[in-house]
Amino acid sequence: MIDHAHPTPHPLPRSGWALIVALACASGTGASLAQTPPPQKPPGGTSPDLPIREGSSVRNEDAPTPNQFHLDFNAGARSSSNVFFDPDDGSPQQDYIGTLVMDLSATRTSPRTAWTMAYVPVLNHYQTYDQLDSTSHAFNYTGRYRLGVRGGLNLQEHFTLSNDPIIVSTPQEGDSPILANNQRVTRNRAEINMDRELSRRTRFNIGATHILNRYEDENFQDSDGLLGLIGLDFAVRREDTLGMSLSGGRLQFEDDVPDVTSESAALNWSHVQDRSRVELSGGATVAKQTETDSFFSGSAALYRRFGRNAEFGGGWRRSLTADVGNNGTSVGDRVFMTISGDAGRHLTLMASADYGRRESVAGASEVNLDLWGGSFRARVSMGQRWGLVTGANYRRQETVQPDIGSQTVNNYYLGITCRAF
Asked: Are 258 and 247 in contact (CB under 8 A)?
């Protein structure tokens, strides 16, 4: 989530736009087998010559985030043009959905720790197709703990449970929802990473990631994945860091489906300044199941803050993923961008666009598709605790394999948000 260093007179609770039809929670949980970047270094980090190169926003580490604990509520209604995610050549059904969201969030910093947590339950009630009534959940945790003078431990947990993939995805961060059906999907990604400074300009990294996918629909394959990573970072200048990494993993399926193994090697570069960050990574990945495939994998990201409260973020990622639910893995491409800011004292705006592609590899049954969309949101402050929220979202998905077809979903949302504390 893009961080705002300069708070507005009436800050926007996450639940105020989590439902703006992108309905994004604090973070997505795509089943990528690639490494997810660790969180930012907390205040009081070790060597200034070796900046943390990853993160999800541009932060000023000399200005620690104050400890916070908030409870926000959002109540509203949205319209959906295709509640069953039917193909365009079928008979997509429209409905109106009443929505209630609770957003419990906390941020804590100290000389040795820095962590954020958010739990977001979402209750949906359909006016006509009440058999689709459901409760979705998202829990996200990111933390860093100092281990002595030269080391640190990074932890991340991203969990979602939903009958509607649009509810818990964050396409503005590259986690595009797969439009399958309305049966329950559970995803979890847990990460642990430890770094140790070998000198003022060299840092050693080692970590592991566990991935879980569970589908209520018997036509989709449950999977469990484990990935290990080791790497070195070298500070070239105060703002620039070069790195190299090696990783390997295994993805397991049910019903006697062969395991998928993967190995990757990558080089990366990052440039961090006070108001911007640029990251580039590129390498090769080899995946093995019934066949062996190799492909280029990598990422690019740019984050930039303009003025007092305008921010731009965007990027591209290409990695091995298992979020399609077939009996193997896919090469996942993701392109995304977001721009946000304030228009006056009481209006906050955000617009985002994204594109994704999945192509099966390593002998898995072919499930190839393209997906893209865009969203817009606006919040009007009505006091210290109240706000009016509105927005629109467009999602489209085209399947090439196993069957040719397309799906389109349009959503419009209007609600009121309230901060309890």
From this structure: no
